[in-house]
Amino acid sequence: MKHLKTILLATALCIGTISFVGAQSKIAHINTQELIQAMPEMANAKSQLETLSKTYQTELQNLGAEFQKKVKLYDSEASTKTQEENTARAKEVQTMEQSIREYQAKAQQDLQKKEFDLLKPITEKAKAKILEVARAQGFQYVLDSSQGVTIMADGKNLLDDVKKSLGI
């Protein structure tokens, strides 16, 4: 009877140990920002954003130069014009300044929308590939180390495996 209790206790301990080991999660980590920056699609997106940004900057500089010329002209001619003309010119300058500010705000919104539209498919592709590689290697959790968070030293870094899977 004593041996039976010992055998049952040993069996229970073995089953408990096996269950505990089996229940542990496999965890990996990856720097998603580094992965996304290494993707070829990102270079194309950056190029498109830079081109659009330069276009808006050039247009804003042209509008600003035109605005400055008009203000300088109106200031130099103010003494030779009537009060009504100067008031109308002041309103014109204010309207022009407001138009430039609206254009600048619209350009900023357009750039943000374009950036979102370009980056969304890239990040979705990266996420899908991370999940694919993690599942293939049996990882249940993948932590993002790009946020400056210290990741456990023993966790597997999936960056090279995902890059290889993406062909980069």
Shape, please? rod-shaped
| SSE order | HEHHHEEH
Biggest beta sheet summary: 3 strands, parallel
Helix proportion range: over 70%
Summarize the entry for a quick read.
The protein is mainly α. It is built from 5 helices and 3 strands, in the order αβαααββα.
In words, what does this structure look like?
The protein is mainly alpha-helical and 168 residues long. It has helices spanning 2-23, 32-38, 40-77, 83-136, 159-166, and strands at residues 27-30, 141-144, 156-157. The chain has five helices and three strands. The protein is rod-shaped, with a radius of gyration of 32 Å. The N and C termini lie far apart (65 Å). It has a three-stranded parallel β-sheet with strand order 2-1-3, covered by helices on one side. It is 77% helix and 6% strand. Residues 3-14 and 16-23 have low confidence and may be disordered.
